[in-house]
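does this look right to u?? flavin-adenine dinucleotide version
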Amino acid sequence: MNDDDFSRASHAHGKFYGELLKLRKGEIQSPPDLVIYPRSEDDIIRILEVCNKNKIAVTPFGGNSSVTRGVETPKGGISLDLTKHFNKVLEINTINSTVTVQSGMYGPAFEDYLNNFGEGFTCGHFPQSFEYSTVGGWVAAKGAGQASTGYGKIEHMVLSLKVITPSGVIETKTYPASAQGWDLYPIFIGSEGTLGVITQVTMKIHKHRPENTKYASFIFKNFESAVVAMRTAMQDGIGLPHLFRISDPEETEIAFKTKNFEGTLTDKFLNTLGYKSGNRCLMFVAVDGNKAYVNQVIKSIKNNNKKHKAFFIGASPTKKWLEQRYSSAYLRDPLMDLGIMTDTLETAVMWENLIPLWSAVRKYLKAREKTVAMVHISHVYENGANLYFTFLSPMKKDDEINDYLLFHKGLVDTIHENKGSLSHHHGIGKTMAPWMEKELGSESMKLMQAIKNHLDPNGIMNPGNTLGLKP
Ligand SMILES: Cc1cc2nc3c(=O)[nH]c(=O)nc-3n(C[C@H](O)[C@H](O)[C@H](O)COP(=O)(O)OP(=O)(O)OC[C@H]3O[C@@H](n4cnc5c(N)ncnc54)[C@H](O)[C@@H]3O)c2cc1C
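got this back:
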């Protein structure tokens, strides 16, 4: 338990761009009064009892990589940090192919443990924040990893969980599937700390066979043909790649520039073949699994892409991308030093709305002077995909926070108006909460609120409009 300034300040904010701007100005509003590192589930039960009785706010805290103001504590109270003592694998069952893990375990420690257990396993969840996020945070914020097309999003991985709520403890049983009324554990996936503290999760695991993984990279003539190729691959029953990713033309050109590819002989050759700078798009593919499956999926994707006039450029661009996949996020701070705002937003969209949404958002972003707008698709489904937007733009000097918040609001409005979801994997937090009722409708919000009121009658769990819920 800590109440020193550093502990309180470092538990008062996450990684939302607006929070980072405020931090740079030395602004830390309403930090928690106390940071508690519970040692056992009994500790958490007792803490929630006391806090519930005295109406003290409790905000669960994992790796602190939230980009939606999920861990901010506007009502002060207690930040409940699970990373110190809730960081162990409790059981691996190789017959069922499951792992039961405590919620405060960080990604790398969890994956290392699985890789080194028995013949080797993987959980298949690799968000870009992998190094700094926890299993509990993945589940609470409903995340997706970079290999989600094959392994699924976190809600496809969880089989059961245990949650301590102010009203009591809920532990769901583990079945491969069941028909016992509606399932209850999904209510807590995406609950963002508003209903209780997730203490342990039982998840699927898979055989880890990196020696079998195969990679392929392609260039398409334009974004539209790459999207059609991706969609048909997902709908033709050829098996699923694990990593499946397209960069739009602007992101592709920036990738080429930063890798010193521009102006090379190969670049000139591609241009003469019709893969023109400014239109062409990169696709990355990686497939895991047993050898026969991997070979069949790669072969089918190659055949499919050929029909859409893609040019196969070998395995190494995808491998290189995978090697540096966690590093680009670290550019955000040095760019801030240079007065450049850089942020990301993401959404899920049905196939028929994908190109119109991509165009509308690009139009919005490019209307701002000197703005770089990069877009990729990285989580793909039979019925649609996500779009992930990264923008870089000079900040308005001395008005950085308002400038950013206004630009961000316009961007979310544009996504919402063009049939994109509020989030595909970053969650809602306090940042996207103002759009929730418009997105879900008032009856759905009332239902969510009723569940909240039952489990957390005094509104102590992550208060301050998280998920658009009232205390
Ligand atoms: C550079 C960067 C890249 C990112 N890339 C991805 C990505 O590729 N995919 C992706 O899905 N996300 C990504 N994110 C967002 C973020 O990493 C995820 O939301 C992640 O799942 C949060 O996990 P965490 O452990 O850091 O949780 P925290 O940030 O500590 O908490 C997130 C929310 O979950 C709640 N919470 C945490 N633990 C528990 C618990 N045990 N019980 C109940 N509630 C809890 C918190 O109260 C908070 O509301 C990225 C973030 C950054 C900064």
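Residues 60 and 80 are 5 Å apart (CA to CA). idk if thats expected tbh
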